Amino acid sequence: GIGKCVAMDLARRNARTILACRSRERGQAAVEEIRAATGNPAVVLRLLDTASLASVRAFASAVLREESRLDVLVNNAGVTGLPFAITSEGLEQTFATNYLGPFLLTNLLLG
Length: 111
Hints:
It holds the Pfam family adh_short. This is RDH11 dehydrogenase. With about 110 residues, the protein is mainly α. Helices cover about 50% and strands about 10% of the residues.
């Protein structure tokens, strides 16, 4: 999708690229594909579920602790057509995934 294409382009430009994915298996497959296609070993996977504000907070905390700087943030997570569901934090799942999680992430990473 769009996120993978953006990550591929950034990696081709020799940027350290963090893929923030819900699925470890699918995320690691994307990391390996991007590394192989670009020759850039600085492509890494970090787990993130934007529907979970706790996951967003943990991800942002790790990035701020582990990375010396962050130049570009691409918020590309999104879902549509899911049946109505409430997250464990009491939020409507689609709203949390598409809006609240990315908004919180951006604000936490602004420093």
